[in-house]
Every structure is written in C-alpha cells, then in structure tokens.
C-alpha cells in the first residue's frame, strides 16, 4: 500500500483497478479449484469404499473357510480399476490372508517412479480410515459378515487423476486472469482521464499557491461531482486562508504581548510564593508555641526531616546544638511526668491513638521549671509515611494563675462559710449550680450537699408559710418581680421554729444569665421580742380604744349640750310668755262683773267704763289665743329637742354595746352617723360638707369600729381645715363600690401632708397636733387591716389638702387562727 | 472374537490331544450355518437356536462346545448336542458323523428333511451326505452333494458352493 503513495494518480488508478479485478478473479479461481479438489478427493474415497465393500462381500466365505486362493481370485477383479495399485485382505487376527498388486506397465497411471512402492511390505491392519499421501490414497475397511468382523481389506490407489485435473484447472485460471487484466487495463486508462485531469490541474494550482504564498489565485470551476465540490471547496479554503492570514498576523502580535504578560504574572506568583515561604518561616520560628515536626518511614522506623522551631527551643531553654542528643527533651522531663507521657507516646507510635495532650514540666538547664501543654498528633499518609506534629505551649503563668485562683477560692469559701447570714447562690432556674454556706445550712437545717433539691427546703418550711413563698416564686419565675422578701419559719429538730427573713434577688449578669442570690437572717430572737411587744401593744390599743371612746363620749355630751341649750331657750321663752300672760286680766274682768252684778246690763250698756268691756274681751281673747299658739309651738320644739337627746344617747349606747358584733349595715347610713356625731363641731367651725354616695351598698362589719374610724377621720379633716385658716372649709365624703368591697373617701382642703410624713402617718404615736396622742390613725389602720380592709392616704403636699381612703370588704374575712 | 477363540483353541489343542485338523473342522461346522438356509418350518420362532448334533463318536472333545458358546448366527444361538441314535436326528439342524459312524447306523441317518449332514468318508458321500470334509495338500477342504442338499430342502449359498472342491449335481 505504501508503495502506491508516491506514484502519479493516473498510474495509481490503473494499478488499483487491475489489483481489484485480479484479486477478485484469483479468489474465485482458488475457491473453484479448492472446491473441485475436495469434491474429487471425496469421490475417490467413495469409489475405494465401494470396491472394498464388494471385495469384502465376495471374500466372506473365503475368510470363513480359510481359502486364500479363492480370496486372491476375488482380489484380482480389481485389475479393472487402473488407479488401484495394490490390495490386501487380512484375517480376523490381522494376518495377511490374500494380496493383489497391479502389474507394472499395465496402465499409464502407475508411473515408473512409483513402481518401487509395489515392492513395499504390507502395512498392519488398521481400523476403518482413508489416508491421503502426496501421491496416493490408502483405505482400510473392516469385513463384517453375519454380525461378526471376520477380517479387514486394504486398498491403495494412485492420485494421478487428481493431479492431472488440478493442473488443467490452474492453466485455465491463469489464462482467464491474463485476459481479464488486459481488458481492465484498457478500460481503466480510458476512464481515468475524467477524474485525474481536473485533480492534476488543482494539484498544479496548489503547488503554485504553496510556493508563491499567493492566496489570491483560484482554480477554474469543475462539474457537480466530488471533484467539482473539491475545487469549489479549495477555492473557499483559499478565500478563508486569505482572510485568516490577515487575522493571524494581528493575533500573533497579540499573542506575544500575552506571553509577556503571563511571564510577568508567573514571576509575581513565584515572588508571592517566596514571600509566603518566608512568612511561614517567620510564623513557624516566632510563634509563641513550640512546634516540632518529623516524619517516620513505617518500613524503617527511622525519623527523618526533623523540623523544630525556635520557640520550642526557647521554652525548653536549650540551643539548637543540644539537639544532637536525641534524648535531650526526655532528659529535661521530670521522671514522674515522663512516666505519664511515655505510655501515651508508645500508643501513638503503635497507632492505637492518633493524638494526645498532657500537661507536663521541663526542668530547663538554667534550673527554671516550666509548665507546658504538650500535644502530639500523628498523620499517616497513604504511602505509609507517617508525620508526627508536636506542640508545646508555655502555661507556667497560667498554672500560677490557677494556683492563685485556688487560693482565692479557698478565701472565698472561708468568708462565705463564716458569714453569720445564710447565703445561697445559683444560676436562676438551675438548681444544680446552687451553693449554700454553713449559716444557710444551720438556719434551714438542710445540709449543703442536699441544697440542689428544692423539696428539701419546702419540707422544713412551716405549712402556713409555704403558699406565701410559692406565690412569690411564681411571680419571680414569670418575671413580674425581681426580688422578694418574707419572714418565714423553719422547723427545728427540737420541735420549735426558727424565724428567718428570707430575701431572694435576681441579678442579671453580664453574660446574659441570671443569678439568684438568697439571704437568710435568723430573727428568732427578734420575733420572740415582738411577741412581748405585741402584749404591750395590745394594752396600748385598749388604752387607745378607751381614749377613743372618751372622745366619742365628749362628742356626745357636746351634742347633748347643744340641744339642751335649745331646750333651755324654749323653756325660758315659755316661762316668759307665761309670766307675761294676759290671763290675769280675765280675773280683773271677773271683779268688775262681781261689782256690777246687780245692774250688769246697765253697766255694760250705759256706764262709760262698762261699755268698753266687750271690746276689751275681744282683744283679750285674741291675745290669749296668740299666747297659746306661741307656747304650744315652743313646747313642740322642746319635745323635739328632748327626742334628739334621747336619740344621741341611744346611738352612743348602741355603739358602746355592740362592740365586736358583726352587723349588716348600709354604707351611707354609717357615714351619716359619723357626720352626725361630729355635727356640733362641724357647724361650730362653719365647715361645709359635700356628699356623693354611689348607690346604697350594704356591708357586713363591726359597725362601731368603722364608725370610730370615720369619726376620727372626719375630725382630723376638720382640724386640717381649721389649721389652714381658710374661710371656705370643705369636707367631701364619697362612697364607691369596688369589685371586692367598698371605698369611703374623706377629702379635705386643709393643710395637707408633707411627703416625708406620708410614710409614717400611720405609725404608732405619730401626731402633728399638740393635744394629739398619735393613736387615732394608727389604731384606725390596724382596725381596717383587722377587718380585711385597708386605710390609705394621699396628699400632693402642704396646702393641697389630703384624702384618706378606707377600703372594706363586703364581708369580714374568716377569723384567723 | 472368532480369532480369539481360534487362537485359544490352537494354543490349547496339544494339551487336549485334539488335532489342528479337528479344530478347523469344528470352525467349519460352525461357519456352515452362516451359508445355509433352512426351511422356515424347522424353527419354532425367529430366534430358536440352531442345533449341531455330533452323532456317536465325538472327535472334538468339547472344542465345538467352546467354539459356539455365546455366539449367534442371524440372531440364533448355536446349541451342540452329542447324540447316539438316528432317532434324535430330526431335532438337529446340522448332524456331524465322524468317520466310521455312518456304517454303524446304516442309511437311517440320511434323507431326513431340513437336516444338513456333514461327514468324513467317501461312503458317507456315496450314501447321500450333503457335505464331506477332505484333505488336499494338508488343507481341510470340502465336497458338496448339491442334489442331497436340494432333497433335504436346504439352500446352499453360492459362496459356499464356490469354495467346494467338488459339487455333485446328481444323486
């Protein structure tokens, strides 16, 4: 094929055509000859087999009865077959029984050079088979008779027929091939011109274009076949090359510039890398952490590429020269630290762990001991190489700080536990962080180790105190309050109760968590003192109450006195009227009538004196009637005043009697009663009263206590108005219904209360009046509280008046134990 | 198989005192059955055995028994019987009559239909025996009386006739 490459296209086409037809013919002839050869061989074998069959059948009896002559006679019939050179019959034991040889020269087939084969020895008997030799074919075939193998026949035939026929065929094939090739050549030389000539022209043009580099040349157009398209394509290509040539020239300039740029950027990258490397060296050597790195070949176990930085050496206090001693670091390590480090290191080397970290010491050559955190980690690469990185961090200062922290902690613990106040601290909501001091444990009786469970504290808390504290805790957890304080009792093993003030406070710490601080102060002694104080206080209260009652009595007497004044006036009026009565004039008239009884008529009609008597009688009757009217009116007035006194006395008696008894009363009535008790002094001091009652609510209370409070408040208001010196004195009374009770408000426009006094106004013994004893408001507030209500005050300051509010529940609270 | 048997027979012959001649004759007796066709009524079934009877003196001394044992011809096994009298002849297909025996039994052995008689002597051939063994140049050969064979209703193969030294066509 390669040989074809360089010869002209014209000859190439001729050669291809002739080769193609030659090969096709050769294959055809070869197949025909081969087929004929195989067929003929098969035919020869078949013919031999038929002959063997015939001879076998005819020699069966000869074999059976051991008659060689007869068998030889049978074989001689083969003389008719010119190709069969010799034959033989073997008996059942394979012994030669009868033979046949073609007589030399008997036919033309048996050529002289093969004649010597006729003298060859007979081959041994063999099973059925046909074998082709170069010049002959041999056949063995068994002779069977009556179901038994009784012998074998051997036939040898020459192949002259076969050879002659093959030669003849090859001769014919050669002649046909020559003829065909001649024809092919004649046709190919004529036809190739059509294809070759345009291509040759194109090739010539391409040569010119190539040598002159003139891409403006064009080939003349061809037909519409492939060659025509080739020419058109070639012209297109020339046009494109022409265009690209121009582009290329500019691109090449571009490229040079880009190569230049790329070279520069590579240079920069290399510089960057160098700097990186220097930076790494700097970090490696000047990092405060000691670093060493070495790789181990797992096969040899030798360390190589040992890398150690300056910090490592500095921390250990050794120079780089000291590294010549491979055990330098082990020798610097105290034995007890080495004993901890060694097993870990062994496990790392065996691959059981891939890293470890311990705190250890180095005893430096200069005698200083440094504490370090020593970490080692091993990395195994896929190729079996291992790299171990160790770091040491100097923690000597940290260690010192830790020890200082421990001492600090001990100090804190000492102070914490020595405090006389019980202290508990925890992160809010996390009982497991709670710590308590000894005083806390002493007061509560709960040992510190059980402080985490809140139930331990609940158990020892007095049952009455539990709900109060629970309510506080609930409020605290909801975030409604951030602290609370209460007095509570803890059960003591001796059966008594320890009183303590418990204060809980939440503190938001800087990191967002909330701390909870609890303090406990033992106030058992104070409580006991308070009980004593309570007794004294009770006595004082009684005194106060009596004093209060005295004041009430004074008020009553005062009112009675006022009424008695009216009674006195009425009585004097009646007495004067009676004294100055015209009634005695009726007696004078009777004397005149007695003197003139005889001539009474004449006297009344003629006597000048007697004549005016009837007129006088009329006048007298009128005067007497007026007199009577005046007296009757005065007496009615008197009766009313006396009834009033009776009322006053009866009311006082009713309050005095009903102390401690609960009654259901109307609130406005109560307020009116209180006003009435102060009516005299209010009228005397010209104080105006304004009322605003919201409905007529009914409450169940100890009436006399409420009345006492109200009387006291009204009187205080009157004093406040008096003290202000203003003319338009006003006391406003108001009742309001509230969801769980009523509120009675007494407001005045008097002197007001300075803010500093507002907090202590209800304190025992506080008063601003010279003659006051300071019980009034104190006992009032206590009484209000005792009834389940409250007493409160409001004032915007001096000169702005004051407002007291008494709140009472609709019904009294259940009596407390 | 035949070759093996002959070989064994040949090698063991001197020990038994049997001549090569009688070994060959025993083989011939067996081979005759292959070339002779009996009338169909001589066999009860298609595989009924062929019976070779040795009348009177037995010159084969068990050789014949050994030779035919387990072998068959055209699907029939071969049985060998030693018989003494002519009355058993009708039950045999081949009857061998050793030399001298034919005189002892007179003519009673001949003319039985469907029986191939094989003998040795000229007298035997004269009286109507079908096949007679002869010795020519020391080789065992045989003569055939075709007329006797036809009379007995036997068909003798052309191949057999071809090998016979003499074929007598008249009685």
Largest sheet of chain A: 5 strands, antiparallel
Please write the CATH class name of the largest domain in chain A. Alpha Beta
CATH architecture of chain B: 3-Layer(aba) Sandwich
CA-based gyration radius of chain B: 15 Å
The count of β-strands of chain B is 10
Number of domains of chain A: 5
Spatial ordering of strands, largest sheet of chain B: 3-4-2-5-6-7-8-10
Number of helices of chain A: 21
Quick check: average pLDDT of chain B?
A: 81
Could you walk me through the main structural features you see in this protein, from its secondary elements to its overall organization?
The complex is a heterodimer of chains A (817) and B (171). Chain A is α+β, with helices and mostly antiparallel strands and 817 residues long. Chain A has 5 domains: 7-176, Beta-Lactamase; 287-401, Beta-Lactamase (2-Layer Sandwich), CATH 3.30.450; 419-522, Beta-Lactamase (2-Layer Sandwich); 531-644; 659-809, Histidine kinase-like ATPase, C-terminal domain (Heat Shock Protein 90), CATH 3.30.565. Chain A is built from 21 helices and 22 strands. In chain A, the strands form 5 sheets. Chain A has a 5-stranded antiparallel β-sheet. Chain A has a 5-stranded antiparallel β-sheet with strand order 7-6-10-9-8, sandwiched between helices. In chain A, strands 12-11-15-14-13 form a 5-stranded antiparallel β-sheet, sandwiched between helices. In chain A, helix 14 runs antiparallel to helix 17. The longest helix of chain A is centred in the first third of the chain and has 61 residues, at 226-286. Chain B is an alpha/beta fold and 171 residues long. In chain B, strand 7 and strand 8 form a beta hairpin. The longest helix of chain B has 16 residues, at 20-35. The termini of chain B are far apart. Mean pLDDT of chain B is 81; it is low at 1-16. Chain A binds chain B through residues 58, 60-62, 64-67, 70, 91-93, 145-148, 150, and chain B through 1-3, 6-7, 24, 28, 31, 34-35, 71-74, 139-140, 142, 157, 159-160, 162-163.
């Amino acid at each position: 094929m390669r040989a074809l490459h360089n010869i002209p296209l014209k000859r190439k086409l001729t050669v291809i055509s002739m080769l193609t037809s030659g090969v096709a013919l050769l294959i055809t002839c070869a197949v025909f000859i081969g087929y004929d050869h195989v067929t003929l061989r098969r035919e020869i074998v078949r013919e031999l087999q038929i002959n063997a069959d015939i001879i076998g059948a005819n020699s069966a009896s000869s074999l059976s009865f051991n008659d060689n002559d007869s068998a030889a006679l049978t074989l001689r019939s083969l003389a008719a077959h010119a190709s069969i050179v010799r034959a033989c019959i073997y008996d059942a034991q394979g012994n030669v029984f009868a033979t046949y040889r073609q007589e030399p020269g008997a036919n033309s087939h048996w050529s002289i050079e093969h004649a010597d084969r006729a003298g060859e020895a007979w081959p041994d008997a063999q099973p059925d088979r046909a074998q082709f030799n170069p010049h002959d074919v041999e056949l063995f075939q068994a002779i069977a008779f009556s179901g038994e193998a009784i012998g074998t026949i051997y036939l040898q035939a020459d192949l002259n027929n076969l050879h002659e026929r093959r030669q003849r065929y090859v001769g014919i094939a050669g002649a046909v091939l020559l003829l065909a090739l001649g024809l092919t050549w004649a046709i190919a030389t004529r036809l190739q011109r059509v294809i070759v000539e345009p291509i040759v022209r194109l090739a010539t043009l391409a040569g010119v274009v190539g040598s002159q580099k003139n891409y403006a040349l064009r080939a003349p157009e061809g037909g519409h076949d492939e060659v025509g398209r080739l020419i058109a394509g070639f012209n297109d290509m020339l046009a494109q090359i022409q265009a690209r040539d121009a582009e290329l020239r500019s691109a090449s300039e571009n490229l040079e510039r880009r190569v230049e740029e790329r070279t520069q950027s590579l240079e920069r990258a290399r510089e960057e890398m160098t700097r990186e490397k220097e930076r790494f060296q700097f970090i490696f050597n000047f990092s405060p952490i000691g670093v060493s790195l070495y790789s181990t070949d797992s096969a040899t176990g030798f360390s190589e590429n040992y890398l150690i930085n300056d910090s490592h050496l500095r921390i250990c206090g050794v120079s780089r020269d000291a590294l010549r001693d491979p055990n330098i670091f082990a020798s610097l390590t105290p034995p007890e630290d080495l004993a901890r480090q060694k097993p870990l290191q062994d496990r790392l080397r065996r691959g059981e762990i891939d890293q470890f970290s311990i705190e250890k010491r180095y005893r430096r050559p200069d005698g200083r001991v440094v504490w370090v955190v020593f970490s080692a980690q091993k990395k195994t690469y896929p190729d079996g190489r291992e790299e171990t990185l160790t770091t040491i961090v100097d923690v000597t200062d940290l260690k010192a700080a830790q020890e200082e922290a421990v001492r600090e902690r001990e100090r804190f613990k000492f102070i914490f536990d020595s405090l006389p106040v019980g202290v508990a601290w925890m992160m809010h909501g996390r009982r497991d962080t709670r710590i308590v001091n000894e005083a806390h444990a002493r007061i509560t009786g709960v040992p510190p180790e059980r402080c985490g469970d809140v139930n331990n504290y609940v158990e020892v808390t007095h049952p009455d105190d539990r709900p109060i504290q629970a309510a506080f805790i609930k409020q605290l957890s909801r975030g409604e309050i951030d602290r609370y304080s209460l007095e509570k009792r803890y059960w003591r093993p001796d059966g008594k109760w320890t009183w303590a003030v418990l204060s809980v406070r939440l503190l938001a710490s800087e990191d967002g968590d909330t701390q909870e601080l609890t303090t406990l102060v033992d106030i058992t002694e104070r409580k006991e003192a308070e009980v004593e104080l309570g007794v004294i206080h009770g006595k004082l209260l009684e005194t106060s109450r009596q004093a209060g009652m005295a004041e009430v009595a004074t008020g009553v007497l005062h009112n009675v006195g006022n009424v008695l004044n009216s009674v006195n006036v009425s009585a004097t009026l009646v007495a004067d009227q009676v004294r100055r009565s015209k009634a005695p004039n009726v007696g004078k008239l009777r004397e005149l009538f007695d003197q003139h009884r005889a001539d009474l008529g004449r006297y009344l009609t003629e006597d000048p004196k007697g004549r005016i008597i009837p007129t006088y009688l009329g006048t007298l009757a009128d005067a007497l009637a007026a007199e009577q009217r005046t007296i009757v009116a005065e007496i009615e007035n008197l009766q009313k005043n006396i009834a009033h006194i009776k009322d006053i006395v009866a009311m006082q008696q009713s309050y005095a009697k009903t102390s401690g008894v609960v009654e259901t009363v109307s609130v406005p009535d109560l307020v009116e009663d209180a006003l009435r008790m102060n009516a005299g002094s209010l009228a005397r001091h010209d104080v105006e009263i304004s009322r605003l009652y919201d409905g007529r609510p009914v409450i169940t209370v100890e009436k006399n206590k409420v009345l006492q409070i109200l009387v006291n408040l009204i009187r205080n208001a009157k004093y406040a108005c008096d003290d202000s010196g203003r003319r338009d004195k006003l006391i406003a009374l108001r009742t309001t219904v509230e969801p769980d009770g009523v509120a009675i408000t007494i407001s005045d426009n008097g002197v007001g209360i300075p803010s500093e006094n507002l907090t202590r106004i209800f304190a025992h013994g506080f008063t601003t009046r010279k003659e006051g004893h300071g019980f009034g408001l104190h006992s009032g507030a206590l009484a209000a509280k005792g009834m389940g209500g409250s007493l409160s005050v409001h004032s915007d300051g001096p000169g702005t008046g004051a407002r007291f509010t008494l709140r009472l529940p609709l019904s009294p609270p259940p009596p407390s134990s | 198989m035949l070759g093996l048997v002959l070989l064994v027979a040949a090698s063991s012959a001197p020990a038994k005192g049997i001549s090569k001649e009688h070994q060959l004759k025993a083989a011939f007796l067996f081979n005759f059955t292959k070339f002779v066709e009996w009338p169909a009524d001589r066999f009860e079934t298609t595989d009924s055995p062929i019976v070779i009877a040795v009348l009177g003196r037995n010159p084969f001394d068990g050789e014949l028994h050994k030779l035919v044992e387990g072998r068959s011809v055209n699907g029939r096994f071969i049985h060998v019987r030693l018989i003494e009298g002519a009355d058993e002849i009708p039950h045999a297909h081949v009857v061998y009559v050793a030399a001298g025996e034919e005189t002892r039994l007179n003519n009673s052995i001949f003319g039985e239909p469907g029986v191939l008689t094989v003998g040795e002597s000229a007298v035997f051939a004269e009286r109507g025996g079908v096949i007679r063994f002869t010795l020519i140049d020391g080789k065992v050969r045989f003569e055939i009386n075709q007329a006797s064979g036809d009379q007995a209703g036997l068909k003798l193969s052309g191949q057999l006739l071809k090998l016979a030294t003499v074929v007598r066509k008249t009685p």
